[in-house]
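Now for one record:
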Amino acid sequence: MNFLISKPVNLIRLRLLNSFLNFPSMNDWVWTSILLLIFSLIVIPLGIKFKFLRIEIPQISFTVIFRLSLVTLIFPATAEEIFFRIILLPHKFEQVPLIYQFIWASISLILFIIYHPLNATLFIQSARTIFNNFVFLTSAGFLGIICTIAYLKSGSIYPSITLHWVIVLVWLLVFGGYQSLHNLSK
C-alpha cells in the first residue's frame, strides 16, 4: 500500500522540481507571446460580441491594483497551474508519447473547465453567474489550451503561470471583470 502512494507522490515531486527549476528559453517566451496573441484575437472579439467583455477600467487605488496583482499571481495563476499542468500533465523528462500527452491534456482541460463553475458553486457563490457563463467557460477552455501548450513545449511552469496571470489581470483591470465580480458580491 505504501508503494502505491509513494510512487505518485515521487512523480509529482519530480514534476514540481523539474517544472520550477527549468527556466524558459527566449524561444519559449516568444511562443508564450504568440499564444497570448492568438488567445486575444479569439477571446476578445468573442467576449465583446456576446457582451461578456467591455472596456471598463475600475476606479481603484494603486494599492488595490498592487494587492490584486499579487493575489491573482498566487491564486488563480500559480495554484491552478500547479494542479492542472504540473500534477496532471506529464513533464518533458518523462518522455511520454504524444498520444498520452494529448489524452492527459484533454483530461486536464475538461477538469479545468468544470472546475470553474464547481469552484463558484462551492466557494465563490457570488461569482456563480460569471463562472457559469458560456463565454467565460469558452475563454477558460482557450486559456487551458494555451497554458497546456506553453507548459508542454517549454517544460517550465513559468510561461503558463504568466499567461494565466496576465489574462486574469487584464480581464479584471481592463475588461470589466473587477466590476462584474464586485457588483455580484453586493
